[in-house]
Amino acid sequence: MPAEFFETLSNNAIPPIYRFFNGKDWVESTSGNRIAIQSPVDGSVVGEIQVVTPSEIDEALTRNVDAQKKWEATPLNVRVKIVHLAADWVMHYLDYLAVLLAREVGKTISEAKSEIKRTAELTDYFADEVQSIRGETLDSDNFPGYDKGRIAVIERVAHGVVLAIAPFNYPVNLAGSKIAPALLMGNSVVFKPPTQGCISGLHLTRIFQKAGVPEGVISCLTGGGQEIGSYLVSHPKVTMVAFTGSSDTGMAIARIAPMKPLLFECGGNNATIVFPDADMNLTATEIIKGGFSYAGQRCTAIKYVMGTQGVLDQLLPVVLKEMEETTNLAGPVITVQVAENIEKIIKDSVAQGAKVAVGGHRKDAYIEPTILTHVTPSMNIVSTEVFGPVISFIAVGDMDEAANIVNGQRFGLQACVFTKDEGTGLKYAKLLDVGTVQINGSPQRGPDHFPFLGVKQSGVGVQGVRYSLEAMSRIKPVVINKPQ
Ligand code: NAP
Questions:
Q1: H-run or E-run covering 408
Q2: Alpha carbon distance 196, 59 (integer Å)
Q3: Which residues line ligand 1 at a C-beta cut-off of 6 Å?
Q4: Which pTM value belongs to this model?
């Protein structure tokens, strides 16, 4: 029963006061500071979370360090079993977790279920894949001037203590995608959930604990990123930082984590480029899905569409018609304040010459799904990441101009190209300075074993099942000189 399984997480009042996990016990902070988490759906309080103190961070990290070596020495088959069990528990509580997540971050139940299910599947896949990660040996005589006098035995070892920081938009999945590979590679984990999404993150932590992750190997420290983030990131006991969030936060973290390995997934303002021979129906469907699902609050959401004026004139009516025929296109954005900022950016763009083809209005935390035309690349709506359901249409003279616009952005996560000729798409993809190019499909992260990365200010390092496992470990050569 969920009530028993998760009982220790809170005082079970209505609304509950949640505790944090110091690696050993679920406790309230001595700070006496708490943050009330309000649902973006209706403003109701989902619960209160603790703001931990520096000495509570020190205490949890000391436990993380003390427990790590023993955990790394635990046979891999045991670690694999624990992580598989965690995946089973996630699936077991799918409905319960989905209701909580939907309320906490404003997803539909089906979006929330899909995030939870994906987390379980990803966790399982990590636990399977880790069994084929292995080291290698190298002989010395390959290199000129060396005989067979040396053998390098190259093992994969843990970094130590991985700080996992997740964003509000996928607080369960993007926590699991860090915690599972970090644990499987023998690291201990200090997890900092997003404030909005924290309660779901605490539940995930409890699942890993109940699955058998030993004392000290995982902790979950809560509080605002602005308040506790810098102390955590720069803490000498944190060996590696795995972060998903905005580019601005990523840059701030990178500045205070010198010489620590970083694995960052940051912001994006992903472009769609439409060739004249594109299938306009498919393009329209993918633009709507890519731009408006989860109210555009996805790092891989489509933010602007480019084509020649003639192509956009053909495409726009198809998009508008399909939008008209679709109900419940977008739910709320994460807070009323974020919605107000988006509304302002729309108004500023209009003042600079953009035209509203559809949408543009706000009510509370809800922004109408919006399409703007006559947008130019220098407008803020393009050059910043607008985390909401707004898509800009930009007319270009030719496809080279479109590539230059993509390459001139500070972000470089994904781009998508629509053409019936995949050869054209492949050739064009070479011009685009982004992590991944999708041909005839909207930008997306999955399937999760594909490599996923951002260039420029969109990220550092590569994720995707095998790639994440490798990133959560390092190689350690031991050289045998003059083998007998
Ligand atoms: P955010 O404001 O940057 O926060 C991300 C996480 O960092 C949260 O846990 C936040 O805690 C924490 N944080 C904030 N300031 C910090 C600091 N100074 N030191 C350490 N941690 C700090 O991002 P968000 O609004 O939650 O998420 C949306 C952003 O994430 C978008 O830019 C989106 O593109 C990006 N994202 C990228 C990917 C990808 O795969 N590339 C995937 C999903 C999301 P608090 O919540 O407590 O402030």
A1: none
A2: 25
A3: 165-170, 174, 192, 194-195, 224-226, 229-230, 233, 244-246, 249, 252-253, 265-268, 299, 385, 387, 413, 454, 459
A4: 0.97
- In this structure, what token pair is assigned to residue 344? 């302002």
Q: Which amino acid appears at position 296 of this protein?
A: G
| Kind plus residue range of the DSSP H or E element containing 473 | strand 473-481
Smallest CA-to-CA distance from 344 within 314, 304, 386, 302 is with: 386
Query: Six-digit token pair at 227?
Result: 């308040």
For 276, half-sphere exposure in the C-beta direction (CA atoms, 13 angstrom radius) is 7
Longest dimension (CA), the chain: 79
Beta pairing class for 161-165 and 240-244: parallel
C-alpha 313 chain-centroid distance: 35
- Buried b / exposed e over 57-88, threshold 16 CB at 10 Å, is bebbbebbbebbeebbeeeeeebbebbbbbbe
Q: What would the two tokens of residue 416 be?
A: 């998508």
202, 220 Cβ separation under 8 angstroms:
yes
3-state SS class at 249: helix
Give alpha helix (H) positions in 29-184: 54-73, 76-92, 94-105, 109-129, 173-184
* Residue 146 dihedral angles phi and psi, to the nearest 5°: -110, 140
pLDDT tens string 312-350: 999 999 999 999 998 777 789 999 999 999 999 999 999
Q: Give the distance (Å) from ligand 1 centre to CA of residue 43.
A: 21
pLDDT at residue 327 in the model: 76
326, amino acid identity: T
β-sheet bridge partners, residue 390: 370
Residue nearest to atom 39 of ligand 1 (CA): 265
User: Residue 154's CB: how many other CB atoms inside 10 A?
Assistant: 15
**CA quadruple 85, 89, 94, 99: dihedral sign:** negative
Residues 6 or more apart from 477 whose CB is under 8 A from it? 138, 152, 153, 154, 155
Q: Which residue has the tokens 């489509």?
A: 302
The CA-atom distances, in angstroms, between 205 and each of 83, 90, 179 are 12, 11, 9
Tracing tokens 């709507």 back to the chain, one arrives at 288
Measured distance CA(189)–CA(178) in Å, rounded:
9
CA distance 80 to 272: 40
How far apart CA 209 and CA 329 sit, in angstroms, is 38
- Is residue 439 within 8 A of residue 422, CB to CB? The reply is yes
pLDDT tens across 237-259, in order? 999 999 999 999 999 999 999 99
Q: Which residue has the tokens 């605490």?
A: 202
Half-sphere exposure of 454 (CA within 13 A, CB side): 29
* Atom 23 (ligand 1) nearest CA: 245
> In this structure, which residue's CA is closest to atom 17 in ligand 1?
229
